[in-house]
Amino acid sequence: MRTLSELQADWEAGRLDEAGFVAQAHDLHRLLAALVPPLVKSEVHQILIDGEGLRFVMGDEAVALWCPPDDPRAAPLEALNFGAYQADESRVINRLAEGARCAVEVGAGLGYHALRLAQREPLVIVHAFEPDAARFELLWRNLALNALAERVRCHNLALVADATQTGPSQTLDAWARAGGQRPDFIRCAAPAALAVFQGAQALLAEQRPRVFTRLPEPQVHALFAAQGYAGWALGEYGPRRMEAEEDGAGCRFAVFLHPEAHAEAIEALETEEAQ
Questions:
Q1: Which of 77, 199, 217, 252 is most deeply buried (CB count within 10 A of its CB)?
Q2: Is the distance from CB of 105 to CB of 114 less than 8 angstroms?
Q3: Those residues with Cβ within 8 angstroms of residue 137's Cβ, 6 or more apart along the chain or in another chain
Q4: Each residue of 77-102: pLDDT tens digit?
Q5: pTM for the predicted model, two decimal places
Q6: Edge-to-edge strand order for the sheet containing 53-58?
């Protein structure tokens, strides 16, 4: 399908008469109206277009996000396509982050979850890590859009397993020590989640944060088990206790909680597991 800009160029150059231009342009205008029914059924509240780009307002927290033009799986488009964005995961994240004062968001992307947490938890400071330059720029723009730059701190760093890696990177342990940070909640959406937590052994042992993470490798479970944590895989039918590495097979996300530090959260999660 031709764009409106292309049709305008043809009309201005005389390659398209006015009637043909109006008819073809209106086919495009109808697409705007066609967005209304899926929008009404989704958690997207508004779609706004101006000279700076396209932005969505979405979720219970009314988070505003600039929508990147070339990412078909961006959070706002996922919400419009499927009615919600990571709804089941968001409910678990909300429970784990309740009362948090210092949260770490690894692989923050556009910042949707970081901004949600800052909106939900009035005392939390969220540290959002995003190593990709283009996404980091959008993350900054979204902070400004939501007026949350004081409560969400951005770090253009990759969190790695050890300090010998090149490029703008750091271990989570080194970052926490340098800034005197004491995270009580971590969400990790980075594909290299195992490396992130390999570089956070001291933090896990000393601070015992509640953890929600991508589960790309079975070794992630073993790493947390060595620190005394229990794990739950999040699948189609809710959380499932992991007793061994293979119990998380096929699940994208997992929760790790320490029995001594997080008894109430574990009870709530196991109640959901039993339902």
A1: 199
A2: yes
A3: none
A4: 999 999 999 999 999 999 999 999 99
A5: 0.92
A6: 44-50, 53-58, 63-66
